[in-house]
Amino acid sequence: MLDEKGRLFGKINIVDLLVLILLALAAIMVGLKLLGKNGVLPGATASQAKITYTVQVNNVYPQVYESLRQYVEQEGGDQLMASGALLNAHVVSVVSAPHQNTVTISSSSGALTLPLADNLLDLTFTVEAVVPNRALNEVGTQEVRIGKGHNLKTVHFEFPGGLITDCVWEDVA
User: Fold this and answer.
1) Distance between CA atoms of 135 and 145, rounded to whole angstroms?
2) For residues 109 and 149, what is the distance between their CA atoms, to the nearest angstrom?
3) Which of 7, 42, 108, 120 is the least buried, fewest Cβ under 10 Å from its Cβ?
4) What's the pTM?
């Protein structure tokens, strides 16, 4: 395969071959980078969508709720973030309800219902976002689907154990 001058098949030097392979790999990497995360060329029309979804977070202390309300109630809401980057999504409202967490002990003389934790709240957050690809429904690195777990992270607060309870999709004008 290699001749006396170190050429592969008598045509190309092995070092030159390695350089060509590296150049080809670099060109592939640049091409993938230009295609972007969603596989759409810049300037191509992706099927963007505006989504409004709700996230349920249970067992929150009332002090935490009172602290985060000021950020959600500011004009425009509190902006979501992921991996240190701000997203095109905002928490625009939050509603609280008393948490119903009880245990019932049944015996022959009747049933006794005891609360497990007192004064905790269940919070329902409303998030408005524009997703670049309607098929993927990704807000940051998370897919938005009804019934899916969701980490709600904004500039000012974070809840890792949320659940998406509702979602409405609209076309972006």
Assistant:
1) 11
2) 41
3) 108
4) 0.65
